Amino acid sequence: MEHGNTAGLRVIDCILHAHDRSLMLLACVVCAIGIYASFAVGRHAARASGKAKVYWGVVNVVASGCTAWATHFIVLLAFEPEMPAAFEPYLTATSLACAIVGIGAGVTVSIAGAQRSRQFLAGLIIGTGVAALHYIGQSAYLVQGSVSWDVELVVSSIAVSLPLFGLAMLAIANRDRRIRKLAAPLMLLAIALLHFCGMAAMTLRYDPTFVFPADAVSPKTVTPVVAGVSIALIVLAVLGWRFDLAAKARIRQDRRRLRDLADVALEGLLITQSDVIITSNSSVERLSGFGQDELTGTHISALLPHIDLAGLPEKEERETELVGATGQRIPVRVLRSQVPLGYKLQTVIAVRDQRERLRTEAKMRALAFNDSLTGLPNRASFYELLTQQTALPANTAKPFAVVMVDLDRFKQVNDTFGHPTGDDVLVRIAERLRAIARADDVVARLGGDEFAVMQRGADAQAACGLCVSIVDACNRETFIVGGQSIHLGASVGFALYPEDGHVPAELLRNADLALYAAKADGKGVHRRYESALNDKTQERQTLEAGLRRALTDGQLELHYQPLVDARTGRIASAEALVRWRHPDRGLVSPAEFIGIAEESGIIIPLGDWVLRTACAQAATWPAHIGVAVNLSPVQFRDKGLASSVRSALQDAALAPQRLELEITEGVLLIDEARTLQTLDELRAMHVRISMDDFGTGYSSLSYIRKFPFDKIKIDRSFVRNIPEDAESVAIVRAIITMTACLGLPTTMEGVETADQFRFAVAEGCSAIQGYFVSRPLPASKFQALLEHDSLIGSLKPENDGRLLTADGRANGQTAR
Q1: How far apart are CA 327 and CA 290, in angstroms?
Q2: Could you say which architecture CATH assigns to the domain 541-811?
Q3: Residue 251 contacts by C-beta under 8 Å, 6 or more apart in sequence?
């Protein structure tokens, strides 16, 4: 401790009393000029490229070494040892070389990487070179006497100065301008410590007998050399100053140009240096509410406080918030890019206002997860909610019910009153479902007229209660829309979690199966899912797959039921009825597969096959016998129907007048204008059109007036109770009378008894069809039947009202 205090006093005494103060001041000025020159040339070297970069880099290293050397030797010249002194020339030159090599090595290490450890190491290498300069230079300082050294003070000066050089290099490499300004003072302090500690570490003893070596150089000889180096550093500093002025002018010009260009851009642009805003464009000023003068000089964190721009990869966008002039927080996306301005890389930050995008995305999310008509969650949103509920841990998950609701007769509302009225009804249904459901239940519209409810915490009893409420609300209450009274109904099916399913897809499928069962049970009811429904579904899928194979494997065939002329008793035509001869189940009734064909779309190729086969087989019959083919509403929606009919007639070479197409009133409800156009196209071919199942649909009288029918077929439901039921008799008699007045022939179908047959003849029906006349027959048997000119002959009491079949056997009155 005592030695440390003594050494400190010696250093202070050396500074205050052992040096010429004017030369010391000169040394400080030369050092400052040299350091500025070195930094200025170094900055110019960094801005240059190619050979110029290497050249100015070498100049920078040499200038740095000369600065340290000149400073050191000016201070040596300022030292007053009170005895003659001289300089050893070789060691003097070696000291300069050490400074240049050390600084060059340190700079090389520094520019090889930007890591902090590498920069500190570069500072240590530079400090080692400068320390070698000082102590080799002091060894070259000769006096007339002897010199002894305080080794501890020498080692201490080196140990303290080297970290200072390391810190100086760290400051130079820092992005913050304020920290970079500390580099020059740190280096100056390190150099001063080395020199003054080194001078204080020398103890001089005068010896008049000492003789200087022959090659020793006197201080008067060294002074011009040092002065020349100092002047060169001053010239270099002036040159560097010019370089800096030119670079700053270039930067100002580039910034002006960039701002002019940036003002054209819609997005905000900020130019920063060391995270301080240098300039900005008008877009970011409008966005933030700050003026350019307020933004310039502001730290970027004041505007964008929640993002570390230094750690943001270049040209990678990040979302953050911009704090405006009034404190409002504006969602933005920022992108950082390095742009060369005036031979220097500057950071340009693009700021994009995200408010409109976020508003648009919110609208898109609402559209994606909410039904636009009713405002209810849609299928995707409902499925996501089910996913969240079923993903809960088993110990926290609560039971719930998935209730599926399908409106009955809604399609008729759409087709009759139009889609705007249908939409209004759907909105009313949504309101009723919301009113019925509890606050924590979820009501969704899955599409069309299909709704769903997730009833939280429900058991079977609670779910049944909800279903009953929904059915009652839809079935019993009338909708008044546009002054019109509309009656609807609803079929409801439900499944419970976890008894009836553990995942959303399974729950929805099972609730849908229950709904399908409710509709099959007559509609307007509710059903819970049962495992047996899976078997029915599997059976239906098997039947559908088998029907598709039947079309390609030739398992389908046509049977024909004759229609007889009520006046002559002769066969006038036959209705084609499709049958499926299943390889395992035998003959499958159309009642089992026509509905499946319509729902699955198979009805289109199936109907086309029936049409073509019927035309081809009818072409082999006598020319006065026609063929009737039923058209499904699904077929009638096919825009290519008229072309298919024309093609079938042409391929079979069948006269169009012999083909009769039977349609139900359901076809007329699809699209009145398009339906009329299709019927006109068919009539233009001279194909006959008949209305099947007359009286069972909606507004039949108006359709007879609007559409070009050739025949009316009275539905079997009216014929079944004739002649016993007076009401049925009155209805049928009225239909026959009405159609007769309109000049339309009438066919009574479903005639199964002699009394029904007599009634049809007596009332003036044009044609009669039913089991009393004949069952549907395979094509070959019907062909044999056609060989008899008359099927009926007459109805006399002696034949007991019986008809003869083609093989001459009696056909019973109620044959089935």
Answers
A1: 11
A2: Alpha-Beta Barrel (3.20)
A3: 341, 342, 344, 346
* CA angle, 393 then 395 then 396, to 5°: 70
Q: Which residue, among 690, 678, 594, has the nearest Cα to 639 in the 3D structure? A: 678
* Host H or E run for residue 694: strand 688-694
From 150, 254, 424, 449, the catalytic residue: 449
C-alpha–C-alpha distance, residues 449 and 474, integer Å = 12
Query: Please, are residues 404 and 512 in contact by the beta-carbon 8 Å criterion?
Result: yes
Beta strands in 476-570 (DSSP E): 479-481, 484-486, 489-497, 526-528, 556-565
Gyration radius (Cα) of the chain, Å:
53
Helix axes 2-17, 183-200, angle to 10 degrees: 100
Any idea how long the chain is?
Answer: 816
Verify whether residue 449 is a known catalytic residue: yes
How much is the average pLDDT of 449-466?
A: 90
* Digit-coded pLDDT (tens) for 736-760: 888 888 888 999 999 999 999 999 9
Angle at 285 between CA 282 and CA 286, to 5 degrees: 90
**CATH 3.30.450.20 is right for the domain spanning 265-358:** yes
pLDDT, tens only, 793-814: 443 333 444 444 434 333 433 3
Q: DSSP states of 261-315 as a string?
A: HHHHSSSEEEEEETTEEEEE-HHHHHHH---HHHHTT-BHHHHSTT--GGGSPTT
Where along the chain do its domains lie?
2-244, 265-358, 370-529, 541-811
Q: Per-residue DSSP letters for 452-474? A: EEEEET--HHHHHHHHHHHHHHH
Q: At residue 228, what is the residue type? A: G
Amino acid at 703: Y
Q: What is the CATH number of domain 370-529?
A: 3.30.70.270
Taking Cα atoms as reference points, which of 513, 490, 519 lies closest to residue 500? 513
Tokens of 615: 């035309």
Pair 269, 279: CB distance under 8 Å: no
Query: Of 48-52, 439-443, 653-657, where does mean pLDDT reach its minimum?
Result: 48-52
Amino acid letter for position 238: V
| Cβ pair 390, 503 in contact under 8 A | yes
